[in-house]
Structures are given as structure tokens and as C-alpha cells.
Amino acid sequence: MDTGESVRITLRSIRAHKLRSALTVVGVVIGIASVITFATFGASVEAEIVGDIETSNAGNIYVFGTPAGDDDFDRTLQPVFTEYDIQQLEEIAGVQAVLPRGIVQTQSVRHGNQTLARQQVTAVRPASFTQGVLVEGRSFGADEEAVVVNERMAGSFSENLTTGERLTMTMPDGGERNVTVVGVVNGTRGEVPVSEFARQPRVYVPIDPFYESVVESPSVGVRQRAYPQVTLVIDPREIPETQSAIQTYLSGESDARSLSADDTELVARSGNDFVEEISDVIERITRFVTGIAVIALVVGAIGIANVMLVSVTERTREIGIMKAVGARNRDVMQVFLVEAALLGTIGSLLGVPLGLLVGYGATRYAEVTFSLAPLWMGLAVGVGVLVGVVAGLYPAWRAARVDPIDALRHE
Amino acid sequence: MSESANTTVRVDGVSKQYDLGGTVTALDDVSLDLSAGSYTAVMGPSGSGKSTLLNLIGGLDTPSSGQVVVNGQDVSAASEAERADIRGTEVGFVFQTFNLMPRLTAVENVALPLVFDGWDRTRRRERAASLLSSVGLGDRTDHVPAELSGGQRQRVAIARALSTDPALILADEPTGNVDTDTGAQILDLFDALHAAGNTFLLVTHERHVAERAERIVHVEDGHIRSVEDVSGGQH
């Protein structure tokens, strides 16, 4: 049967039942729009985070320990990388800089008459601050009684902190240390990428004299500073070779190996490894949430099936007429499948822009850059049509099987 | 096709049983030939089996036993799809209740059999429009059935029955839903179409309608009781 004619018959039928058809379409619109919204939002978040990490951390290798069972997070922060390890890592070919990072516990940080309790202070080398991250001021020198704060920290006080102002840090033993703010930064070189989405207020201090975590180095037998995490800046052209050399050192003769529990794995991850892991996590979350939205689509499909069954019953006599004038079963089936597919298609065509609009709103609200998920959009339209066809199959099959003699007697 | 070339319909020893709790015999060993260009009326009280006979000849139903051949095609042995094609091209139905598609215009209704026969849209419309003119509805082509009178609707149905130029026109109580004057006009139209060479089989329970035909087949309790020749054709 001529498809144009079945579309014409269908359009007349839809027009004759405007409200019913519109409500059915709304069901599909909601389903498609939810899928598009979540998929688009997920893709936007992923693109934003991955973009951040890729631009700023391409040549970084992050070294830390992960316990076999992930249940004890504290153990990942054990200070096991000694000064000896750092010297050894610096000598690996391709390594351009080694940036150890430690945590200094404080009771509080005070500025003027305002006190912030329980601030984590990060101990870093001056090399962690490049021109790129400095917003104002300068980096501290080694063994200088000075600090650098990030913008969040600067904004945490009622009067914004600026360079030259004084901070008082209360140490766990109750002692106080007065320091001068010499710079404000918007991040540090070698920061582990996952910390980028939890931009906490931070105070950075020079390792010397603030960082006091020491252990006895098994290799050289003297007490040395040791760090829970080290970042290596490496030649971007030699990432795979350098990464495996670092990994070999860590798993072999390193102090960190000797100092770590046997079930702790010492890993050297590149920025790309993080990108992959994070993308993977976000994709899984997106797929899960989108999967929930698919339920809405299934409900839409049930709506189509329901309306089609009603339509078949109402149009039994028409089916009889069509059969009496030469319609084969598949012609009758076609008329009803076209109607169901058309409802699904209209739903998709309206649902996609609506979903994009809501997705765009969500990205604006979450302050991430809007990215399209073209694959999902194509998929959603395809699924919408398919939903219509599948939902219409049974009603259409029922229509095709109608006995023409009974149908012609039907009132 | 052993029968003579001008036999349009051959019904040979046809029986039809329905299983409605018990077995009901609607037709019992009925044989009937319709020659090309003939005009036959089937008369009988309701439940006599006359509608069943019409449905079997028209390919809407299949006999329990016996053979129905329409224009050389064995309807009784045809598959469902083949019967659909026979309904579309070999026979044209005219019903008591018109049975027009309510949301299609007159011209679209007349063109509907041509859709299933695979004609393209332009040719369909041309053919349908000229048929509507020939039944006197040239000015009503774009009206839907609800905008037409009973007589006009039945004329649309007649134009539709003619659209594929079928070998046989089957009319089931065609005047049953219209007033006497309109009924007479419809029967006049049948006469004209018969004169133009069309073969008619008309089912009715009204004597004056049946008398328009060349012969009357009386059906009762699933049997043909008698075949009456109408002298002079018209009353």
C-alpha cells in the first residue's frame, strides 16, 4: 500500500482525536526529553571535567598508594614516599620535576578577628606555583615563614585576604605561628585531578619548615621527611616510558614499598589515566540515570499501545471497509503501524528540543559548559519511532486479524 | 476454466456451516451460475442464507465445502491475501449501510480500492473524479460522507464499487437505508450500469426491488427453492 495514503488516513484519524493524540504524544515527549536531558547534562559535565584535566595535567604522573581493599581510605594517605625516594625519582630519565605534597594539621586559621576551624594546610615545594596559577603576589621561597592561599581561601574571610596580610595558624599542640600571605593562586601545579571538583579553601605552606612527618628511610637508615603523595612532571613526549620506569622503581627497591603494607599497591597514574577513570565513572552515572529516564519512555510506549488498542476497536468498521475493497492484512497493519510510529515520531521531534532546553538549563545551573550528546539525540529519535512501532505492533496485528464480515456489522 | 467463457460466477455444490455452540448450516449444497452481463436478484427472508451466499461469492468468507469461481479464479481455494485481491479487483460491494470511510472525502473513498490495487495518486484521483461525475456527484468530490445525503452516499459507494472495473457488482439491500424515491433512483442507476454491460448480483427481501433484475433466485433455509425469470425485466 502507498505509504502516502496510509499517512493521510492516519493524519485524519489523529486530527479527529486531537486531545487523545496530544496526550499520548505528551507521554512520549516526557520520556524522550528526560533521556535527552540526562544524557546531555552527563555529557556536559564529562566534557567540562575532562577538558580541565586534559589542558592542565597532560604531562603529570601522580604517585600514591592504594590499599587492596578500598575500604580504608586513610591508608592511602600514609606518608611513605621519603626524601630518598624523591631523589631517586628525580634521576629517572624524562622526569622534569618532582612535587611532593604533604598535609599539615592545624586547629584553626585566624585572620584579624575571624577564625576558621579545622583547616587543612598543604605543604608543597615552591616549584608547585607557576606563573600560570598565580593570581597575585608571588610564590614563597624555600624555608620562608610565608604562605600562599587559593582564591576560595582568600574569599573565606569577610574581608578578602590579599598579599601582605598576616594569618595566624594554631597548631595541634596549641602553639601559634604567624605567617604572611605572599600570593594568591587558583590551583597548584601537580594537584591530583580529582581534587579539582572539590575546590576547597586551601592554605599552602613551604615544606621546610612546616612539614614535620618523618620516618626512617630503610635505604639510607636516617630519619627523613616522607610524603603521602608525589606528583612528577615529565616530558610529555615520553609519558609511557617514564611512567613504566617510575612504576618499576616504586614496585622494586623504593622506601615507599618497604614502608607500605604488603597489600598496598603503589601506583603511578598519568593525567590520561585519570581522565579515563573519571570519564568512565561519569559515563556510568549518566547511563544509570538515563536508564531511569528510559522508564518514562516505556510509560510513553504503553500510552501509545493503549490508545492504539482503543483506536482499533473504534475503527473496526473502517477495517472491514478497507478489507472489503481489497486491503490485505498487511495493508491494514500498515495503517495502524504508521499511526503508532507517527505518534512516536512527533513525540521524539518535540521531546528532543525540550530535553535540550532542560539540559541546557541544568548546565547553566551547575555552571558547566553545555555540550551536545549527538549520539544520544539520534538514538532518542530512533527509539521514539521504534517505541511507536513496537507499541503499535500488537494493536496493528489485532486490527489485521479482524474478520471483515464481523467488522462490517460492527456499530 | 472449463466452463463457458461468459460465465462470470460459478457456485458449485457450496455448503457453509458455522460453529456457534452447535453446528448451524447457513447454506446447503447450493449451485448457481451468473453469466457475464446478467442481473440476478437473490430473495429470501432473513436468516435464509442469502447474505452468506453473497459473502462467499465476494470472497469475504470461504465455503465449508464446494467451489466458488469468480471470473476464472477459485475463491474457495484462494489464500487470505489472494481473496483480498479478488475483493479489490474482481468484485465491487454496495452495502445497505453504505460503508464509506467517515474521514475520507467522496473522491478519496472512491479511490480507496485503487490504493490497494497499487495505482498512483494522480491516476487514482482522475479515475475517482470521473466515476463521481458519472453517478452525478461531480460537484461533491471533496465532501466527507457526513456532508452528503443518504442517496448521495450510496452513489459514492456505487462509484467506489465500479472503480477497479470489476467483473461483478454485489449489492446487499442497497435501498434498505434510503427513502422510496431515492431507492428508485439508485435502482435506475443500476439499470443504466447493467445496460452498459456490468454484471449484478443483488440481495434483497423486497419484491419490487428484486423485480428490477432479469431473474430472481429464491433462497430459504440454505437451499435454492426456485429460480424465477422476470418477464420484461421491469415492472
UniProtKB/TrEMBL annotation, chain A:
GO cellular component term of the entry, any: plasma membrane
Residue ranges constituting the ABC3 transporter permease C-terminal domain according to the UniProt record: 292-404
UniProt KW keywords: Cell membrane, Membrane, Transmembrane, Transmembrane helix
Main location: membrane
Gene Ontology MF terms in the entry: transmembrane transporter activity
Annotated ranges, domain MacB-like periplasmic core: 21-247
Annotated transmembrane regions: 21-43, 288-312, 332-356, 376-397
Membrane-topology descriptor: Multi-pass membrane protein
Pfam families xref list: FtsX, MacB_PCD
Database matches in InterPro entries: ABC3_permease_C, MacB_PCD, Macrolide_Exporter_MacB
Localization in the cell: Cell membrane
PANTHER family membership: ABC TRANSPORTER PERMEASE YTRF, MEMBRANE COMPONENT OF TRANSPORTER-RELATED
Family: Belongs to the ABC-4 integral membrane protein family.
Name of the protein in question: ABC transporter permease
Source species of the chain: Haloarcula japonica (strain ATCC 49778 / DSM 6131 / JCM 7785 / NBRC 101032 / NCIMB 13157 / TR-1)
TrEMBL record, chain B:
UniProt keyword terms in alphabetical order: ATP-binding, Nucleotide-binding, Transport
Protein name: ABC transporter-like protein
Domain ABC transporter: 9-235
Key word Nucleus present: no
Gene Ontology molecular functions: ATP binding; ATP hydrolysis activity; transmembrane transporter activity
PANTHER family: ABC TRANSPORTER ABCH.1 (PTHR24220:SF86), IMPORT ATP-BINDING PROTEIN (PTHR24220)
Transmembrane segments: none
GO cellular component: membrane protein complex; plasma membrane
Keyword ATP-binding: yes
Entry-linked InterPro entries: AAA+_ATPase, ABC_transporter-like_ATP-bd, ABC_transporter-like_CS, ABC_transpr_LolD-like, MacB-like_ATP-bd, P-loop_NTPase
